[in-house]
Hints:
This protein has four helices and no strands. α1 (3-14) packs across α2 and α1 packs parallel to α3. 1% of the residues are buried. It has one domain (3-80). It has helices spanning 3-14, 20-32, 34-54, 67-80. By secondary structure, it is mainly α. The radius of gyration is 22 Å and the shape is elongated.
Amino acid sequence: MTCREFSEFLSDYLASELPAEARQAFQQHFDECPTCIDYVKSFESTIRLGQCVCTHPDDPVPQDVPEDLVKAILAGRKKLK
Ligand SMILES: [Zn+2]
């Protein structure tokens, strides 16, 4: 397994979606390759950051608000200030 293959398999591996055979090859590369160990560390911290964003589900971005309405609201706010 190459480092490129390793990075491509990583998300599947972390999601436990790799077949046992691929898992073993993945694990073996991981044991032998410091570059990929560093890669996994940074990948995991990226996932943690992503989860952090998802802990604020009460701040949805409205997708169906017409742009004119948004502009009107923003204009109204400016007037209040
Ligand atoms: Zn590697």
